[in-house]
Amino acid sequence: MSTMKKIAAIAGVSTATVSRAFKSPEKVSVSTRDKVERAVTNAGYYSNALFRNIKRTESRTILVCVPNFGETFFDDIIKGITEIALKKDYQVLINDSAQNKGGLNPFTIARQIAGIVFLGSNFPLNLTEASRQYLPPIVMVNEFISQFNLPTVHIDNLAASFNATNYLHYKLGHRRIACISGIESHLFCQNRLQGYIQALHRSNIPLQKNYIIKSDFGYGAGAQSFKKLMALPKPPTAIFCHNDLLAVGAIYQAKKQGIAVPNDVSIMGFDDLKLSEYIDPALTTVSTPRHKMGEKAAELLLAHLDEHKIAKGSYLLESSLLVRESTGYLKKPEFGIRN
């Protein structure tokens, strides 16, 4: 009752209205219900009593939260989720977390959504212990965050990056290998960077900090990062990029500067987006099973909705290295300014 009074005071309504907003929302106007729910969210009140009073509706809607809907990486994952969901007569609702700056209302979600799939760690919900136990089932894709103990479908980004960097060294002979990194706050970027660093250590290649460019995930970032690397006194002979967009941007910049790929510098991407096969030269990249990741996430979520049980933890899918034309053997021994 103490919490009810505080919520009522913030929303400017009576405690009876607060109670009615959760027990019988259809009896409260939309504007009043929004006031109450905003008051709860803004004040951070997620008491058991409030959530227990929520009147849930039988929902056949799965919410997919995308960190940035403009990124083509997520297209195949969403397709995989949608195909499995439709077979079970569930509809899929897409939320663009980048555009929804204010976040989602946990009380609206608790009432109207059957399950949630997060495609990254940019959560549009406050996942406190108090609120999570009353939210619908949640599955994560792409990033495994152990503290939340959520079922997560992903690849081993560290191992994939380690193997990719090793390929550039052991198979192709490169030692001056640079890395164009993605967004530093993303856990999978941290893992990819760590895989690159570990591969260099394993091969007794000194780590050069100026060979690591931390950037965004886009064509422009790839082009600018490539420009910086090539301006070094001893530029790299191979570049490992954290995604294909960065690699395509790097190839674009190489052509502008008259630098031949792969004769002068080898460039490798990550993710195997469709465009990687059709650019010139075709991009060597790490293939991530995005469609299967989406399918697996949907299967986990729907299994819980059907059987009311879901296994926590990590579900690792296999990635593979696709060798194409953008990488090649080191042409000369590493003496002088250029190799």
TrEMBL record:
InterPro entries with a match to the protein in the record: HTH_LacI, LacI/GalR-like_sensor, Lambda_DNA-bd_dom_sf, Peripla_BP_I
Record-annotated HTH lacI-type domain positions: 2-56
Coiled-coil stretches noted in the UniProt entry, renumbered to this chain: none
Record keywords: DNA-binding, Repressor, Transcription, Transcription regulation
GO MF terms, alphabetically ordered: DNA-binding transcription factor activity; transcription cis-regulatory region binding
Keyword Transcription regulation applies: yes
Source species, domain of life: Bacteria
Transmembrane intervals: none
Protein name in the entry: DNA-binding transcriptional regulator CytR
